[in-house]
Known about the structure:
There is one protein chain. With about 280 residues, the protein is an alpha/beta fold. The protein has helices spanning about 15-20, 50-65, 85-95, 110-120, 125-140, 145-150, 155-165, 170-175, 185-190, 195-210, 210-250, 270-280; strands at about 5-10, 25-35, 35-40, 70-75, 80-85, 100-105, 255-260, 260-265. The strands form two sheets. It has a six-stranded mixed β-sheet with strand order 1-2-6-4-5-3. A two-stranded antiparallel sheet has the order 7-8. The protein starts with 5 loop residues before the first strand and ends with a helix.
Amino acid sequence: MSTSPRKTQRPALGMGLDALLPDRLEGEYFLCPVEDIRPSPQQPRQHFDPLAIDELAQSIREKGLIQPVILRRTGAEGYELIAGERRWRAAQKAGVQRVPVVVREISPIESLELALIENIHRKDLNPIEEALAYNRWLDDSQMTQETLAKKLGKDRTTITNMLRLLKLPQIIQKDLIDNRLSMGHARVLAGLTNQEAQKAIRDEIIKKGLSVRQVEDLVRKRERSQHRKKGNAEEDHYMRSLAENLKRTLGTKVDLRKRGKQGSIVIYFYSEEELDRLLEILT
Length: 283
């Protein structure tokens, strides 16, 4: 299935891998048939730019694959990718039959950790992929957001804000993946609790090409308007309650009309006798 392992110098795999496995890539790698390798279900990256794959494939045709991919063994005849799926895809496109690999014996959660760190440091993930990876990591490892943030060298609020993206409507998540909305837009929308409001503002962003600052202003205006409406609704309820109390006390229909700080009380009567009764109560 593969050639015998041979010694080589340690390849430069980037800060992410070095930070996690500072000494594990010393030693042996071998050339593994590409058909013996399968993608990892733990891979946080779901979208691979076809143009970028084509460009890397051309580079591999000209110069070969310099960096080995990292695998873990999944059975007697197979391996699962931990890091380097983009290189593996490009190697296949370039017609390469065998690729240099390093095999590590690690758990699935460690595999996710390694893949996530590599992608984050190389900025290969879109925000939704990154948020999903954080969420999976937290679920699988029972790690706190604070611990995860320290492990990744990030602020805890960064992790929290990323996870909030997963509560956005699917249409907005898709916009973020497809770069129709920026991370700044998404953060503002994630601050709203009403999905209909999120969708309405999303439509305005796309229709008018609003900047993040403009969206922040729009949300503030919307919140002020809603606050005024809520205040007016509460005052209207209070006035109706007073009118009902007067109706019960006087035994007839009563209207309370208020404009600003002023207003009027209208008491209805339907006969001379009822007027005399009301005057007696009021005087």
